[in-house]
Amino acid sequence: MVCFKLWVLVFHKKKIMKSVPKGTSKYQAAWIVDEDAHEKELGEGEDLEEDADGGGDDDDDDGMEVDDGNADVDGSQDVGSLEKDAEEYETIDVADNPSVYDNAQNTEEEEAAFAKRKEKEETDDRLFPDEVDTPVDQPARVRFFKYRGMDDFRSASWEADENLPKDYSKICQFSNMKLSKKAALDVADKTVVPSFNAVSVVLRNVPKAVTASKMPLILYGLLPHEHQMTVVNLAIKRVTSFTETVRQNEELIFQVGFRRFKAKALLSELSAGKLHKCLRFMPAEGHFAVSLYAPIIFPPAPVLMYKETSPGSLVLIGTGTVLSLDPSRVVLKRTVLSGHPYKINVRSAVIRFMFFNTEDVNWFRKIRLSTKHGRIGEIKEPLGTHGHMKCRFDGQLQSSDTVLMKLYKRVYPKWTYTPLSNAVEI
Predict the structure, then answer these.
(1) Whole-angstrom Cα distance, residue 100 to residue 24?
(2) Alpha helices in 91-176 (DSSP H)
(3) What is the rounded distance in angstroms from the CA atom of residue 286 to the CA atom of residue 240?
(4) How far apart are CA 85 and CA 220, in angstroms?
(5) CA–CA distance from 29 to each of 26, 82, 83, 95 (Å)?
(6) What is the bridge-based pairing of β-strands 259-264 and 89-95?
(7) 418-419 and 229-238 as β-strands: parallel, antiparallel, unpaired?
C-alpha cells in the first residue's frame, strides 16, 4: 500500500478594525486614516474581544505615581467623554477585498468619460493632424529613429520589400492576382454540379449537436489558394447612423464573403498613388482602406464591418468590398514635429521648441521644413545647446506661423485574425 500525506494550507484573512462615525460604510471607512486602527490576523481559536479584555495589563507596571485626590474628578470626566464617544462612533471591519472598491464605482460614468476622451483626441487630430510634442526627457533622434523625411509624399518612392516583419513569412503573395483569380474560377466552372442547381447531400457520422441545432446548415467549398493567409485590403465607408469614435488598431468584427472573423484594423487613405497615409481615426465621410491579415478571398466580395458594444451585441459601422490582396501596399504613418519662430529676419528665422539639443538638430538637418502658411525652408545650422536652429525659407515668416517637420515610417497590420463561427465541425 502506498500512503500519501496531504498538507492543507489555511490562509487567514487580514482584518482591519477602525473607529469611525456611526453610519459610515466599509467603502468610506477604507479612505479614513485612523491612527488608532489596529490590525490583527485572526487565527484558529482567537477572538477580537481579547484586545478589550487584556489590553490594560501593561499599564500597572509603568512605575508612575498617581494623585488620588484628583483621580475621582478626572475619572468622572473621562467616563463621560468615553460614553459620548461610544454613542457617536462605532468599530467596523474594513475587509481587504478589491471587489468592495469595484462595486462602489460608477461604470456608466467611467465609460462616458472614456468615450468623451476619445472624442477629444479625434477633435485634436482633426484640428492638428498628426502633430506630436517632441519629448524633453528623450532625444528625438532616438524616439523617431525609424522615421524618415520626404520632400513630396505623392511623388516619393518607398521600397516595398524593405525591413518586412516576421509575419510576412507566413503569408502568400500573388505575382499576378488577376491571372490567379481567373485560373481559380476556371477550376470552379469545371465542377461536377453546375451553379444554381438543387442537389441532395448525404452526410455520414453527423454529431447529434448538428441535428439538435435550429441554425441553418451552410455548406461551402474553397477555390484554390483560399486556404492561405495574406494581407487583405478592404474599401469601406462608414454607416451614417454610427457616430462613435473608432481608433486605429481597434478590434472589430468583419463579415467578408462567407467568412466572419475578428481582427484589428489598420486604417489608411484610399488614394490612387503608391503611398497611402495611415489614419489615426475612422473618417466620418468618404471611403477609406482597411488592411488586415485574413484568408484569401478574391475580389469583389461584399464586406460588413461591426463593432462589439457588449458581449453578443454587434453594431454595423461600415460596408464595402474587397479591394485587393496586396501585401506590398505601402501604408505610412506620419508624425509632425512643430516649432515656433523666435527671431525673424526677412527670409531667415531662428526656430525653437522643435528640438532641445544640438545633436537632434544635426540629425534631422537634411529634412525639409514647411509652415502652416505655405512656406518651404531648410535648417542651416544649430544655435547654442538648447535646440535653437537657424532656418532659411522661401519668404518672410509671420510671427504667428508654425514651422513643421513631417516624418514618415511604414506600418503593418497586426496578426490578430480570429475566426468566429457558430457552426459545428463534422
Answers:
(1) 14
(2) 98-103, 107-127, 140-143
(3) 11
(4) 78
(5) 5, 21, 22, 10
(6) unpaired
(7) unpaired
Pairing of strands 131-132, 330-345: parallel
Owner of C-alpha cell 460588413: 304
Residues 204 and 286 sit within 8 Å (Cβ to Cβ):
no
Smallest CA-to-CA distance from 295 within 236, 225, 219 is with: 225
How many Cβ atoms from other residues are within 10 Å of residue 227's Cβ?
10
Nearest to 293 by CA among 167, 159, 420, 163: 167
How far apart (Å, rounded) are the C-alpha atoms in residues 135 and 301? 45
> One digit per residue, pLDDT tens: the chain, 426 residues?
444 444 444 444 455 667 777 777 766 777 776 555 444 444 444 444 444 444 444 444 444 444 444 444 454 455 555 555 555 666 655 555 556 566 666 677 777 777 777 777 778 777 778 888 898 889 999 999 999 999 888 888 899 998 899 999 999 999 888 898 888 888 877 776 777 788 888 888 887 777 777 777 777 778 888 899 999 999 999 999 998 889 888 999 999 998 999 999 999 999 888 999 999 999 988 999 999 999 999 998 999 999 988 887 899 999 999 999 999 999 999 999 999 999 999 899 999 999 999 999 999 999 999 999 999 999 999 999 999 999 999 998 998 899 999 999 999 999 999 998 654 444
Beta partners for residue 321, in sequence order = 235, 302
Rounded-to-integer distance, Cα 374 and Cα 135, Å: 26
User: Residue 285 CB: number of other CB atoms within 10 A?
Assistant: 8
Q: 131: which 3 cell numbers?
A: 502633430
Where in 208-358 does DSSP place strands (E)? 229-238, 251-256, 259-264, 266-269, 275-277, 287-295, 302-310, 313-324, 330-345, 348-352
User: pTM value?
Assistant: 0.68
Q: Is the sign of the CA dihedral 203, 209, 213, 217 positive or negative?
A: negative
Question: 392 with 344: CB under 8 angstroms?
Answer: no
DSSP-derived 3-state class of residue 186 = helix
Residue by residue, DSSP assigns 158-171 as --TTSS--GGGGGS
Q: Which of 411, 254, 256, 219 is nearest to 332 (CA)?
A: 411
Report in angstroms the alpha-carbon separations of 152 from 33, 367, 368, 370: 62, 11, 10, 11
Q: Reduce the DSSP state of residue 98 to 3 states and report it.
A: helix
C-alpha cell read off for 112: 462616458
